[in-house]
Design brief:
Strand content: 25-35%
Number of helices: 9
Pfam families: Acetyltransf_9
Helix content: 25-40%
InterPro entries: Acetyltransferase_Eis, Acyl_CoA_acyltransferase, GNAT_dom, SCP2_sterol-bd_dom_sf
Structural class: alpha+beta
Protein name: GNAT family N-acetyltransferase
Distance between the termini: 38 Å
Number of domains: 3
CATH architecture of the largest domain: 3-Layer(aba) Sandwich
Order of helices and strands: HHEEEHEHEEEHEHEEEHEEEHEEEH
GO molecular function, one term: aminoglycoside N-acetyltransferase activity
Radius of gyration: 22 Å
Organism: Alloprevotella tannerae
Amino acid sequence: MTTKELQRRELEDSRALWETCFPNESPEFLDLYFREKYSPSVNLIHYIDERPAAVMQLLPYRMRCLGQTVNAGYVSGLCTHPDFRGKGLAKRLLDKAHQRLHAQGAVFSMLIPGNDDLRHFYSKPSHGAYVTMSYREEASWLPTGNAYSAYAISHITPYDADVFVLHQQMDLRADNALLSSFSDWQAAIATCHLEGGLALVARRKGKPAGIALAVKEADGRVFLRDFLAKRPGAKGALIQFLSEHYDVPIIYDRAPSRCTQPEALPYLMMRIVNMKKFCQLFYQPSLFSPYEIQIKDDLSVSENNGTWICTNNQVLHNPTPKAHALSPGEFLSHYWPDLKISVRNLLDE
């Protein structure tokens, strides 16, 4: 079998597994996902007796954390065929994904579990010891009734380069945000259209000043999938347009939140996949004493386990952890206990 034939087989087998494990996904969404997000380089698939048994995609992303831009991986579509569950295949694929990210110099692995049972599943050391690091809360926007004559609202097409440039500029202003590539942006707009939603840009003197992706959900409420603007007036113009178009008094959003907020709901889970890289990027040196980090229970990347000593702008490693060691995920939640991360356009709604 040639490389091209093998890649075609893996694509067909991966999609067939999705159709088996995610029966509620529409053929139109699967067409979009496997056209825009899938590639042979991101696919991890495991066969048993020539049958596709488990699959996932490890999608590359960049993330802004505390002003630093780092590489990360997003675990998408992990599923096991019902005939092969209970054999540790999810662990096998996650191990491979974490090892690949570590070798590539990425800092984090991320995923969004579909329910609380899966959130518990991924929190186990055998499945990566992920922790919830991103929370959201429902917010609402009320139209003001103003005309906003300075702004012209129009529909976005996936290839509006100046609109994507604005999106990038706004993302890079954030201290903590998942950054969208151009292909991510195209896929988000296409998904919005697929769900009957609107992708809008507010322009001032011909230049983009605000962006909104919005979808009317099953309960009749209109939710923003993405929303950013340079000026409050651009946001106001977009909200007013959406309110009038859908004939609704309120536009809703699932906005990034801190875990301490009473209405916060758990969302994105993360873990560190490269402790050395994390320490080099995020350790804040002290003039008085070294900082020690104790890591255990990384069953995917054993190089992360042990004692990490950050001192004099150096990162030293002893493979033996001391008492009170934490998993890479647990350490992350202790080190950044109240991080507020903006996460958009992951096609998970």
